[in-house]
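Example complex used in Figure S2.
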Amino acid sequence: MNRFTLPAALFVLLVIVLAIGIKHSPDKGIIASPLIGKPAPQFSLPSLTDATRTVSSTSLRGRWYLLNVWGSWCGTCREEHRMLLEARQSGLVPLIGLDWKDDDAQALSWLQQLGNPYEVVAVDREGRTAIDWGVYAAPESFLVNPQGIVVYKCMGELTRQIWEKEILPRLPKQQTAKS
Amino acid sequence: MLPELGHFALILALLLAALQAFFGIAGPMLGRERWIAAVTPAVAGQFVMIATAVGCLVASFVANDFSVMYIAENSNSALPLFYRVTAMWGAHEGSLLLWILLLAAWTVAVTIGAARLPPRFAARVLGVLGVVSFGFLLFTLATSNPFLRLDPAAPDGRDLNPILQDPALAIHPPILYTGYVGFAVAFAFACAAMLEGRLDQMWARWTRPWTTAAWAFLTCGIALGSFWAYYELGWGGFWFWDPVENASFMPWLVGTALVHSLAVTDKRGLFKSWTLLLAILAFSMSMLGTFLVRSGVLVSVHSFAADPSRGIFILAFLIVMIGGALSLYAWRAPLLKSTAGFELGARESFLLFNNVLLVIAAATVFAGTLAPLISDALKLGTVSVGPPYFNPTFMLSMLPLLALLSVGIHSNWKRGRLQDKQRTLLYTLIAAAVLACGLVFGIYSHGRVLTPVGATLALWIVLASLVDPIDRWRRGLSLSRAVIGMTIAHLGLATAVIALTTVQSFTTERDVALAPGASASAGGYEFRFDGVRPVEGPNYDGVGGTIVVTRAGAPVTVLTPEKRQYWVQHQVITQTSIKMHRGNNLLVALGEDLGAGRWSVRIQIRPLVSLIWLAALIMAIGGATAASDRRYRTVRAAEAPALGATAGDGAA
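Predicted assembly (831 residues):
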C-alpha cells in the first residue's frame, strides 16, 4: 500500500460502514416523530359507535394501546385493514381508532363491511386531535405505553413486517406470552 | 398521455446516456474517430429528451393531473400556480429529475466550451459525464419514477409539504443542485485526464472556470437554504449542523480547497496528484450527500421519506463511480512527478496550508455527520452530535486559515521571501486590531475573547486584500478578472466572519407571555403585543398577531407573525415575522395560545444577521467574476503556463 492507494482503501472502509448503516435501518423510511418518548397528546372525543360515550386519553391510561389514524376516504387504510383485524385477533394490544375528518355514516358502514378491528373509535371530525398528534397523512399508528408515553410511530400502512418487527418487540414479555 | 410521453423520453435519455458514455470512453481508447464524433449528438439528444420529460411533469403538475402518484402526493388543486411548478422538485422523485436536467445542461455547456479542447480529451470528459448521467437516470427509472400512475386517480392531491411553500425554498434546490452537479464537471475532467494519461497542468487550466462557477452556485444554494431555515422554520437559527446541511457543506469545503489547489496546479504545475484527488473528492462528497439524504440512514429535519432499496442503489452507484475513480487514481497518480520546488513562505506553501485546513474542516464535519451511523453500526448505542462538537472543531481549523489568508495573498510564487511585504502586513494587522477593538467595545461594550479575535482577523483580510488592488489601480495598471474575483470572494469571506462573530456574541433572545396591550423590552427595543386576529390564505387559515416595536418611544416597525394551519396536510406552521432595523434583525414568533387572549411570544434580536447571507452572495459574485476571466477562454493546448508569475496574477 502506498499513499496513492490509501484513498481507495479508506473508501472501502466507508462503503462497509454505509452498507451496515443501510442494513441496520430497514425501517427508517419514516420521518421520525418528535412525539417519541414524550407524553401522548391529550384528547377527549365522542365514540363512533355510541355518541353518548367519550374516548379520552385519561381513560386509556394504565395500559398499552395502539392508536390508529384512519378514514373511510383513505385508500391505504383499506389495504392495512386486514392486518389490523389480525392484530385484534391476536389480542396482544387493543386498537383505538381515530376516525379523522370523516363522515360518521360512511365510517360505520366501512366497519360493517370490512369488520371492526377497534376496541373503540374516537371521532375527530375537525381534525384538531390529529394536528396535536402531528399526523402528516393517514394512515398512521402510534404505540402508547401504560404511562401514556408514545414509544413508536408508524407512518403509512401498518404491514405485517412492522407489526412483527416493531410493535411486538416493544410490548412487555408477559403480554406477548399470553397468546 | 403526458406522463407516458415523459416516461418514454426518460427511457430514451437513458439509452442516449449509455451511448454517450460508451462512445466517449471507448472511442478515444480504440481510436475510432466516428465514435468520438457521435458523442456530441448523444449529448444534445439526451438534453432534449430530459427537457421533454421535465416539461411533461411540470405540465401535468400545472394541469392538476392527480392520476400521477407523485403529483397526487405533492400537489393540490388549491396550490398557487407558482408552487405547482416548483412542487415538481418538492420531493425525492422530481428533485432527482431536476438533478438530471441540470447535469444535462452542464454537459451541453461543457460540449460548447469543449470546442477548444483536443477532441479525444473532450470526448473522454463527456463520456465520464455520460456515466454519471446514466447512473442517475437508471436510479430514477428503477426506484424513483415520478411518472407512475395512480389507479384510481385521487380526487385531489395531498398538497406540497407546507414548509416548502416558500419562494426561497422553491429556488433553493435548482441553485444548490447546479453547484453539486458542477463538481461533476471537475470530476469528469480529472477522470478524463487520468484515462488519457494526460496529467500535465492543462487539465487544471481547463477545469478552473467550471469549478469556480460550480462553487459560486453551491455557495448561493447553501446560503438560500440557511436563509430559508432562518425565517421559515422559525427556530431562530441559521445553521443547525443538520446532516442535510452538512451534506451540502462538505462538498463546499472540499470544493473551496479544490479551487485553490487548481490555482497551484495551473500556475506552477505542482500538487498535481493532490488536485486530482480533490476533484474526485468534491464530487464524491456531493454523491455521498445524496446518499445520506435519500437513503434514510440518517434522520434529519429535511428527510425525504426514504426507501432502503434506494440506499442500496446509490451505494452501488457510489462504488462504481468513486471506487472506479479512486482505483484509476491509485493506478495513474504514481506516474506523476513534480520537478519544481518551492520555499517555505512561498505562495504554494500558504495554499498548501489552505488545502490542509479546509480538508481537515471537511473531515471533522464528515466525522460528526457519520458518527451516529458508525456508533449504530458498532452497536455503541445512539449518539447525537450537535453544535457543541461542530462549533469548536470547525473553529479550530478556520481560525488559522483566516490568519494565514492575509499573509498568503501577499506572498510570491516559488520564493519564500516576505521581507518586502512585512511592513504592509504589520500595518494592516495593527489597523485591523484597533478597528476591531473599537467596534467591539465601542458599539457593544462587551464581548467574549473570540469576538475581537474574529473581528481582527476579518478586518485584516479586508485591509490586506485591498492593499495591492488599490495600489495597482492608482498606478493605472490593469487588474485581471481573476484577481478582482479573488479579492471580492475574500472580502465576502471576511464579511461572513464579521457577521458570524457578531451574531454569535451579541444575540438577545427572550420568551415572554403577553396579554393584549402588554409590552416586553429586549435589546433596547419595546415590543407591544396588540392581540391576534384570524387570517385566511388560499389553502390555510390561522391567526395573526400584531406587535408594535418602538425604540426610546419612537416607532420602529410593526411585526405580524402568524400561526397557520394548512387544510390538506393539517400541519401547523409558525410564520415568523422579521424586520431589519439599523442592521439589527428583529424576529418575533407566536408560540402557544395561553388562553384569555394571552400568547407566548419569542423575541430575538440578532445584530448583522443578514450580513451572513449577503457575505455568501459576495463570495458567489467573486467566484462568478473569476470564472469569467478571458484567460480561461483563450487557452491553447500547447500554451505553457508562466512560471514564477508575480503575486499580482493571483490565485483566484
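The beta strands of chain B are 508-514, 519-522, 525-536, 540-551, 554-559, 562-566, 572-575, 577-581, 584-595, 598-607. Chain B has four domains: 1-160, 217-415, 418-479, 508-607.
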